[in-house]
Amino acid sequence: MPTLNSSHCGRFESIINRRHFLQRAGGGFGSVALLDLLSNQGLLASDASTTSPTAGRIVHFPAKARSVIWLFMEGAPSAVDMFDPKPELTKRDGQRIQINVFNGNPGPLMKSPFQFKQHGHSGAWVCDRYPNVARHVDDFAFIKSLYSESNDHVPALYQINTGIARPGFPSAGAWITYALGSENQNLPGYVVLGNNQGIKGGPLNWHAGFLPSTYQGTLFRPDGNPILNLNRPSDVTREDQRQQLDLLAQLNDEHLKSRPGEPELLGRIQSFELAYRMQSEAISLIDFSSETQSTRQMYGLDQNETKSYGSKCLLARRLVESGVRFVQVYSDGEWDAHSDLTANHTGHCKATDVPIDGLLTDLKRRGLMDSTLVIWGGEFGRMPVSQGKDGRDHNPNGFMAWMAGAGIKGGTSFGETDEIGYKAVVDPVTVHDLHATMLHLLGLDHKRLTYLHNGRQFRLTDVAGHVLSKILT
Amino acid sequence: MSRRLLEMLAVYLWCLTQHSPAADKPDRVTRNVVALYTFEKTAEGVLRDRSGNAEPLNVSLPKASGLRSRSDRLIVQTPILLKSEQNAGKVVAAIKRSGALTVEAWIKPGDASQTGPARIVSLSADPGHRNFTIGQDGTRFDVRLRTTATNENGIPSLVTPENSVHSELTHFVFTRNNVGSAEVFLNGKITLSAQIGGDLSGWSNEYPLLFANELTGDRPWRGEFHLAALYDRALTHEEVAQNFHAGIPAAIDYAANLPPPAGRPVDFVQNIQPIFRQRCYECHAQGNEEGGLNLGIKRSAISGGNNGPVITPGRSVDSRLIHVVAGVVPTEVMPPSGQRLSDEQIGLLRAWIDQGATWPDGVDVLDPKMEQARQHWAFQPLKNISPPPVMNAKWVRTSIDQFILSTLEQKRLGPSAPVSAGSLLRRLCFDVTGLPPTREQAATFRAAMEQDGIKTIASQVQSLLDNPHYGERWGRHWLDIARYADSDGQESDRDRPEAYRFRDFVIRAFNQDMPFDQFVRWQLAGNEYEPDNLEAVAATGFLTAGPFAELPDNLLEDERLRTRYNELDDIVSTIGTGMLGLTLGCARCHDHKYDAIPARDYYGILSALHSGNRAEVTIGSAGTKVFAYRDFGADRKPTWLFRRGDYYDHEQPVQLGFVSIMTRDKSPDEFWKTARPETAPANTTYQRRALADWITDVDQGAGALLARVIVNRVWQHHFGEGLVRTVTDFGVRSEPPSHPDLLDWLANDFIQHGWKLKRLHQMVLTSAVYQQASQRDAPLRERLSEVSAIDPDNHLLWKMRPQRLEAEALRDAMLAVSGTLNRQQYGPAFKPPISSEAKVARNLKDPYPDNINDSPDVRRRSIYLFHKRVVPYPFLLAFDKPDAQQSCGRRDATTVAPQALALLNDPFVRTVSIDFAARILKEVGNEPADCVEHGYQLALGREPRDSERKLAVTFIQNQIEKRAPRSPSASADDIRRQSLADFCQMVFSLNEFLYID
After folding, report:
1. Chain B contact set for A25 (CB, 8 A)
2. Touching check for A97 and chain B: CB below 8 Å?
3. Cys-Cys crosslink for B862: which of B247, B259, B808, B910, Cβ 3.0 to 4.6 Å?
4. What ipTM, to 2 d.p.?
């Protein structure tokens, strides 16, 4: 019996039909509820299976998660210094081994500068720089055997975001928004909370690739002007704009009357009203005044070191609460500790420890943890050997992430690297596996979520990927 | 009544209902099943693991008289050993990982006297070594589980009370969780509960899974097996009860579930092979042979796949082939995708097998893809066709019309009325130049149309094609295919200040009507044809236009190789989809799944590029720099076929090669010989020239396909869709052309007349089909529903399709209408201002500049706008400009609110709206009615209707009244301009502005 999953070139199909048009119209940022519109007009009789984008178009099986918050530790944190201590590495501290490293010139094995303790019922190890995150380990499923293809940040970032270590492919968030639509038509389905320095590789990390551009991640800033083009021109008031839109609607209406049955025209008329509403809704999201003092403290908004990441975590919760499907919360600056692991990781732990604790606590308190998948991790890991005085070079051969929340079996750990933390050896996990698992929790079969592009049915997981069922409830 | 009797009653009642589909039974627990056997009758000699978990752990069924197969059970009457084909590693790994397990079995013991314990299910090596065993010891069940707290034999064992075994159908379940609680359930009820301490770390992964005996054969068990399952967790009490109530899956009655065999003699070649060819060979013939099965070759087909025979001659009921195509087991359906075989097809297959599965010699299909490719329309030589006759000859303007009308007449679909003169001019101008007509053009055209329509249109088309803006419009379409951008992309995203010379080459080539075959040749190998010609060298920018990462030499070799072969793949794939409409990239890791493109062909083409790379090349005495492709020298670099695309796994060396299905009597080597000039300069290999000669060679190479693909692209841009709608894929899975004869006729005509695009445009633009109205009710209203029923998506072109302006055309049109378009052509790209929110990338070598001011320099046409890959211009991106990472043959046309936000709030839109207002005020004065009139003429090419005029005038007056008190310091002129700009901005936002009728 051939396996059913071995065909990546997949099926070919007509690329232009009514359903296709509808898919392009619905589901992304500010998509118009055209499907409802057309159904109401009886224009969809031949395609009754198509439903409203707000309800989600593609569901393969019941979803455990409604949304995802991806705490993205850009620059690659070190597993052996955070959650995966290696006694053998401590023992062999200072020994030289044969090893190829990205920048050449590897140093000797280097033990972690941090102290570790076991936490929770599960007894998971956490370093002393993450005391608040450590309180949640019984909710975590650790994946300690991830590996990726590239030793270089940008291809690795592209891979963890899109599955492929090359630019130009749709990101996981774009695939998910394409499949599931957005629960709030006034907000983007996929939001990226970046940082002021920018992300290596830029917007291609959250692009829609060959999916319609509406599914790309929208960069959302926690202050000022959260989305592009949200502020009116300086010489136009809200009232002016209302008048403009009323005029536009009336003029468009005349045009529409002589062109019955052109759904695009109707959809476009709606899109202006949606844009108008969006302006107030998006801005209200970054207004934290409705949050209590204790909530703000919980996220570390009262401390300088934690304020930035805390604001993004709080915004992430508000977004998820408002129906946003997929939120990525990038760390500020990089965990790319080539020369100064102690200082670098201490700083990043400090900046994220309280905010992540706050986010997890808040999600639980609000009952959102049952419907939200939280992921923590970077684009690859770091070497067991030193670089410079106390740095570590890139290591794509073995790194880790944890997942928590909807559908995740807490207090578990999957896979292992070798005894010094160099390479995944027990149950190695690919980025495709990570994506397959993410899709699975959202009710999507990664083998069936496909899109025709340049003659081929593409998948987020390319030709690979297994759901990590061991870490699921 | 005793408890046991009650339980038996339950089982009995359940048995009564089990064949009733309406019985309200729960589903079995499926989560964490690691192995599952259902023991139904099979002709295969294999007991299949139906868990769906990882690799199936199948169990061999020996041929023995004491082993009886019934539809729903397996009966063991004499000592027999059933043993898994491999060791049960997957089961052991899963259970060791979780530390917990469940063993479940529906069995009927042969009698209550067998001892040993007699092995029912076992994972063990011999009577002294095991992971676990479920056995029967007289009237007790005996469970041995090895943990670190027991010995290697799993002793002490766990034993159920006396009298718990009966020769009845029994549901037995043993569970043990990861902290050691163990339980035994009989018929859904807990019978025994105990602690088995320790962990499972001592389990061996070298034991097979056994039924009915020990591996050594000395602990036989007799009885019936109905179902057995292993889980890698302990089922809960509820779940055990659930499985009990779910019962045994209904026996599969194959005979009852199969469509009847066809009642006539069946011929293999006539009736069977076409089904195989159409539905099976994709996976089960040479090249793939999934599951080890090849249905193309008699010997292989009859011997079957990895799991044994699939055809049992004379017995279709027992043939696995029939079971899977009929989909009797829902999880085992073939073909796995697409439509199921029809009952008629299955009936034919059944009759063929029942009649003895006769397969004549000499009809084997050795290479089905090649066979299919040989018959595929896109690979045929161009047919010499004459335009067909039509009834309504008066309607016909060019030969194209005959082809279209003839089909419409056959379907009784009349063409639509011609579009109005004003709309036609607007359509022509945007289509050919991407800019709106001027007021003067419109007036002249309308007047001339009243005199002589045909002549006026012909001369208008000619003048538009002569207009230098034509090359900017159509060059832009080609730049999408060439994934052209002005920077490297990747992390550093270095600017490519010289890349524009390729863009300029493209625009000039279109404007000069360069023969398309030359256009293609130069883009592949311009420097090998005319090394000193700047344009020819710049043309190779087609190869260099993709993303590129410059990596330092000291970087890890693996990283550098990966990058290099990804870049070469980008080039091969772009040549494939862009020029040939073939997904060559699919053959990088394996032979193409559908098309006759073996991996060898991929690496043969890669060979042409492998000896060179991107380089900044200096040309001529002026020392002009060009971003071009250049070989490293005269020596060809060795090239290999990489197994699975792995550049460390050299399967075999390859020579320069092309797509073999389109390589006829002239070999790649001969092409290469011809390509090398006698006195060849010693700095290039001429392989790319050989490739270019082949790709444009109509008789010996891919020229016919090249012509079909470009003609189809031109058609797509004129009509909104291609004759072949899958514009980037002409392979066997493409959509067939809506008008195959027309496509061939056009391609033929195109080649015969020197590959001239302007001639093709002229024929299309002056045709009657192009001049139809686009409204849906353009045909007679009373026939609309009828027409819509016959061809709802208008494939046959009974009307024109309205077209949405692309991002660039929208921006250019706004600039043109506002009177501020800078029409300067060619030269380095300009960078428009981009707001800081859209510039979020770190580590760029050439960061996007801040503080760019609005000026005429940044008001040039969008084709000259600097496309920085990592920081694309947001306004164009919002309107679906492709990201230039891969070749794009067809743009999306989304309708989303961020587009509306851009039109409402983007500073660029507001600024050009104010400029538009200023232009109107300057040209017609302050009177709102005049302003509205003029604005409509400039932007939409028509007068406003009374209702529109009234609405607009009222709006402008209201805005003036509102704005004046708000800004007391502003002059009356400023107020008037802003208020009029409020209106102008909405004109830019109108559907009528974006959609061209």
Report:
1. 894-896
2. no
3. B808
4. 0.75
